[in-house]
Amino acid sequence: MTVTDLFAGEIATELLKVLFSISRRACLCKSTADALITSTNQLLPIIQEIKYSGVELPAARQFQLDGLSETLRGGLELSRKALACSRWNVYKMLQLARRMERLEKRISAFLHGPLQAHVLADVHHLRFDSVERFDRLDCSARQLEQRLESLKIGVGDGGGGGGGGWMEEAVKRVDAEEQRWEGHFKNRILFLTISQSPDVEQLRAKILGFIAESDHGSGSFGCYDGFIKEAPGGRVLIVLDDVWSLSVLEQLIFRIDGCKTLVVSRFKFSTVLGASYEVELLKGDEAVSLFCQSAFERSFIPPGSDASLVNQIVNKCKGLPLALKVIGSALRGQPEMYWASAKKRLSRGEPICESHENKLLDRMAISVQFLPKKVRDCFLDLGSFPEDKKIPLDVLINMWVEIHDVDEEEAFAILVELADKNLLTLVKDARLGFFLLSSSSSYYLSKIASHSKFNKKVVNVVNVWGIRAGDLYSSYHDISVSQHDVLRDLAIHMTNRGEINERKQMIMPRREMELPREWERIADKPFCAQIISIHTDEMNEMDWFAMNLPKAEVLIINFSATTYFLPPFIHNMPRLRALIVINHGSQTATLRNLSILSTCSNLRSLWLEKVTITTLASSNPETTPLTNLRKISLVLCNINNTLDSILPSTFPSLSELAIDHCDDLIHLPSITSQFHSLKSLSITNCHNFRQLPTNLGDLKRSLHILRLYACPSLRMLPRSTCELSRLKYLDVSQCVNLRSLPEGIGKMAGLEKIDMRECSEVFCVPDSAASMESLRCVICDEEVSWSWKGFEKIGLHVQVAEKHFNLDWLHE
């Protein structure tokens, strides 16, 4: 053997070792990519939450978090490439593996370096802020700590403390204790909002189920009540917010070892609770700081502002946090003369009585009285809905359109203005995983932005919330509005002035067993109300009394029962345009007296929620069609094949049919295709829906929008879908078992937008799609985006959808 042979053998051996190492790293590349995707998907939402939590971060920290976010997004893209790469392409796999290793080291270095410094800084700030706050509160804070001491050391049985004030302010006062509470109770803390009209049975079931660590929180509590002597999982804290009634509270407090109850209320319940703490109003600098946050978007009076005038207005708010926030928002951006006028109005405000609540309402009314009349009227309408319940945006917009002579775009602009002034709250969209107005309502905002009569604030909303211009067909069926109960009280307080017969709104503020007696005493005279809002338990035919409502245009019925008889006085509402029936009970309710709808000749909009529909067709015989009915919405309903018997002659003008969360809907009957005025057909979140009518193409002259969102049992679209030549928008997103788009989709010449995100079984696009000249936007997953980009032409935008996973809907 020569020397060269010896070296060649050693080199070959080393080369084999290197090749083995390379192949091993290449083989592990895909598993590394999977692990990287998993960890990134867990970390990225947390970073985003920190960035957009509303807490102002220092510029350096914001820059670092932005950089980490970009790094994580780059890691996701890199991991996807690794998973898509062929296992035989060892060279590329090795490159990707090296890049992922570097990325992993970079992320690890941040987590073990700068992030630890962030945590230490936050802990330092938290300790400093806590000390400063408790120094200001002085003896009040020490009293709070003493009152809560029993909670921390676990002494005593059953119920805990109670208070007088709003939950938000109480939480702010004890946020320094939050970590100790969570550690003491091991995160076994249940928060419940009780309100004025609670379903006590449901609340007891939730509490007992939580204590027993059971998932039957919405079912019967009889199996637990009386048998639980000790919380099986250790200590439990139950927080009951917005409690109004002693009788209700007595039913919600359980004398169970290890269970503590904290009650937040406007009232004291000394007979039930062993200790109480009164949350103090804001004083001095605290009140000024909160007011300035709303009025100037900073925590201090800016230079150049009239500090004396600001302090006078703050003093008139009497330290009430919500009044400071709402009035500050109302004055934001207004000239100094406007502020002076507001100060005079506040000074002249005389309370109806000496109660603390009426003083608050009278001083808060200033923020509403300065609104334009139409906007003010829309705010007052919000009092017609139950407290602590989300209001479907579709219901609200329809109501405003019918009674205020506005179109949908202007109604939405009013909504934005009210939200901008903190008079209502826009609720987060669970589907998209970010603030609701970022996509779902873009049609209305994009039209509002170009409308000359709306102010610049609405245009700014379009820019800030990232509205995509031209996104014309997105829906707001899953959007809702909420309102603080004090603001609702303000709306009711302002509408309840004058004689009942002369009021524009007749509202039951809370759920009662029957209609108000004061209504019955004057029922012999006509009522002038435009809106009637009823909130009761079960009602039978004999529970109603006759009422003459010649001017009523909207009837809102809220109830909690398993059966419900619609009021006979609907017959005496000749102008009725919108009927809204919502069941808030735990079970679907059977509606009776549906035949009364045949007398509603002017009815334009019908909303039914959580009811069983058995006689909708027979309640509207052919001899008495509802010629003006334009829109039907069925939400959480048991349909029981009722749609099979509905004739087009019953609803000859029907233009919108929306069915949402109706689990017993399996197919849409063929007779649906005979509604030749139907422009929008929406079937969403119907998990057992499998089939559209084969003759759907018969709607080719009318149908513009076909929305089939989140119907996982739907496997195919009928061939006749391709005959819908006037269809402009097709939404099949989250139809996870849909196999393909129709082969003849190219015939849909008018189609402008397709939303097919999360259609995981659709891998390719029919060749005929190349002939769709009007198509300008496709939203899809990355896997199928390349097929669409193969047809990409001038004007077509292929948008790869981001995946969002959210469990907020579980709380509904």
Describe the structure.
- The chain has 812 residues and is α/β, with parallel strands linked by helices.
- Helices cover 37% and strands 13% of the residues.
- The strands form 5 sheets. It has a 13-stranded parallel sheet with strand order 9-10-11-13-15-17-18-19-20-21-22-23-24, sandwiched between helices.
- Strand 9 (505-507), helix 24 (517-521) and strand 10 form a beta-alpha-beta unit.
- The chain is globular.
- Belongs to the disease resistance NB-LRR family.
- Keywords: Plant defense, Repeat.
- Residues 1-149 form the RPW8 domain.
- This is RPW8 domain-containing protein.
Principal-axis shape: globular
Computed structural class? alpha/beta
Computed CA radius of gyration, to the nearest angstrom: 31 Å
Task: Give the DSSP E fraction (strand runs of 2 or more residues).
Answer: 5-15%
Average pLDDT value?
75
End-to-end Cα distance, whole Å, is 81 Å
Unreliably modeled segments: 1-9, 137-172, 215-224, 350-356, 430-471, 617-623, 807-812
Strand order of the largest sheet: 9-10-11-13-15-17-18-19-20-21-22-23-24
Percent helix, as a range, is 25-40%
GO molecular function: ADP binding
InterPro entries: Apaf_helical (IPR042197), LRR_dom_sf (IPR032675), LRR_R13L4/SHOC2-like (IPR055414), NB-ARC (IPR002182), P-loop_NTPase (IPR027417), Powdery_mildew-R_dom (IPR008808), WH-like_DNA-bd_sf (IPR036388)
Keywords: Plant defense, Repeat
Organism: Linum tenue
